[in-house]
Structure formats: structure tokens, C-alpha cells
Amino acid sequence: MKRRILFLGESYRADAITWMKGLKQFGDFEIITWELQTSNSYRFKRILEYFLSPISIRKIIKKEKPDMVIAERTTSYGFLAAISGSKTIAIAQQGRTDLWPEESVLYPFKKFIQKYAFKKAHLIHAWGPVMAIHMKASGVDMNKVLVLPKGIDLSIFTPSINNSNKIEAIVTRSLMPEYRHDSILKAFGILNQKGIDFSLTIVGDGTRLQFLKDLAKDLQIENKVIFTGRIPNTELPQLLQQSNIYISMPITEGVSASLFEAMACNCYPVVSDIPGNQSWITHRENGQLIEIDNIEMLAEELIWSFENPEFRNQAIIRNRKFVEENANYDINMKVIAEKYHELIDSRNN
User: Which intervals hold domain Glycosyltransferase subfamily 4-like N-terminal (predicted)?
Assistant: First the structure.
């Protein structure tokens, strides 16, 4: 009989889809999903639903009898998994700490429920080293921690050579304030003033879409910026292969699958100088690290990286090799699926 997993989390997210797909493919698991139905826009209603949700989750467990519960984010769905009453629980930390924003009034509460989730979980996913640092500092039993990214599908995200004589940059992060698309546009405004030719493709959707379109117009670069809106993940590899520089400027980061996808497609990474990116990128070795919101530095480093094609080409070859060795979905998801089977076996004995 197939083993069943109850997944708690936003099942529409690319990250979650990769996780579940890998478990089906390499572990032959059957996946049942549960998520909050209220949008983030209705804050109070969502919080109310969250507090009532343990009843719904326990009902599902009673009816479906999953062998295991897995959940994303240690401060939300991870906590719900911890109090679900399931015999076998795995939770994943999504961000560098998941305790974000740090100035939030809910910070002490989030810290408390995260500690409880860490204690109750039988397996904790750190998708990268930066997350494990936080776990260790939080007093987590590190024997329960698996430090391994889910990886990306290297048969889809394949390298291609871009010999363009201009900067063809791409951004693939959600259009939310924390991803600082406005700083990226302003840096390209500087490039435009210097008479440097470029094209900039901004993939995705989010609350800032109209604001960013207006900003591109104000900076007089709207004819060089393409906003694709939300696209199917199947169209992303081609857009990455057509680009030569990948830009990502988040103010906080756990492990970015978007960065791995870009590296796999031979896009040269120019990213924010934060711990989540420092795990994978060394400045002017295999990419550029940029101070948050330093638009002058971003503009200068874009020019530097484009004026050094030989250096850039060596870096993208190294990056592809790195992704093949460390972020291969076929290898990593097999390890994760096997770990789940072992965990279920040990918890049943």
C-alpha cells in the first residue's frame, strides 16, 4: 500500500510543487494537501482561521490516516504540524530564520511557536547552510536537521551561450517590497543615462507591479523593460537562457531556487550581499555581491561584469558545475524521499 503524506502549506508555490513532485517521483508517496483559505489581505480573518485550523487538520488526519505530516515555514504551518498529533513530522525552515519581519509585534510569539515546532519535529529541513546556523543558535538538536536543498531539474534548466553585445538582464522574484525591484530599476536608470544599452526582463507578479511600471516610465527606460507578469514555470528556462545576467536584491533570503535556476542556465549572478546569498556567491569570483539599496554600486558592478566577458564566462562554467554537484533535484529529492521512508519505519517500530 502507498504511503501517504499530509502536506501543510501553500500548495500553489513553485517551491512546494517541487517538494511534493519529488516525493511522488522518488518516494512513491501519495500527497494530501491542506492550506489556509483566507488571503493575506484579510489579516484578522486569516489569523482567526489559523487559530481554528488544528481542528480541521486533526479531522483530516483521522479520516485520511497519513503516515507522516510535512510542513513549510517553522513559524506557521510548521507549528500546526507540531500540534497535529501526527506520529511522524518533518518541517522546513523557508527563510534565513523564519522570524521575519524582525520589528514585528508578533516576533516574540513567532519565536515561541518556532521553538515548539523545532522540539516536536522528528526531521527539520535546512535548505541551505544559512538556515542551519540559525537552528544551531536556537538550540535545535542538530541530529534532526538535514542540510540539503531540494535542488532544481537540470534536464529543464540547461545552459546556453549568450554572446549578446549588450546587457540582457533578468529578475525572477515576486514583485514585493522586500525584493527591491525599485533599486534595480534605478540602477538601470543610471546605465541608461550613461548611454549603456540593455534589456531588462522582470518576471512575475505582486503588489508592486503598477508602481514598478510607473517607475520605469519616470526613469525613461520603459521601452527597455519587459514585465512578463506571472508565467508558467515551464517558460522560465527559455527566458533565463536568453539572458546573460541574473539580478536578485532581496533584503532577506533563505535558499533561493531562483538563483540555482539562473546559475544552471549560465546566467551570471548579481545579488544582494546577505548571508543567504553569501553561502553560494563570492564577490567577483562567481558573481557579484551588492550592498542592499546601493544603486550606484549595483550600476557599477553591472558595468564591470559586462566589461569582463572572459571572467564572466569562466564563472558561469564553474556555477553550472556547482549546481550539478550540489543542487541536482534528481539526487537530492531521492535522498529526502528515502529519509522519509526511514523515518516512518523507525517511528512505527
Answer: 47-124
The one-letter amino acid code at 316 reads I
pLDDT of residue 6: 98
Instruction: Please check whether residue 162 lies inside any domain of the structure.
Output: no
Residue at 161 is within a domain: no
Cα torsion 77, 80, 82, 84: sign: negative
pLDDT at 158: 97
pLDDT digits (tens, 9 = 90+) for 20-31: 999 999 999 999
Which SS3 state, helix, strand or coil, does residue 85 take? coil
Same domain for 179 and 317, yes or no, is yes
pLDDT at 106: 87
Q: What is the DSSP string of 320-335?
A: HHHHHHH-BHHHHHHH
Q: In this structure, are 79 and 202 located in the same domain?
A: no
**Number of domains present in the structure of the chain:** 2
Q: Which residues of the chain have pLDDT under 50?
A: none
Q: Where in the sequence is the domain holding 271, given as residue range(s)?
A: 167-327
* Residues 285 and 333 placed together within one structural domain of the fold: no
- pLDDT for 333: 98
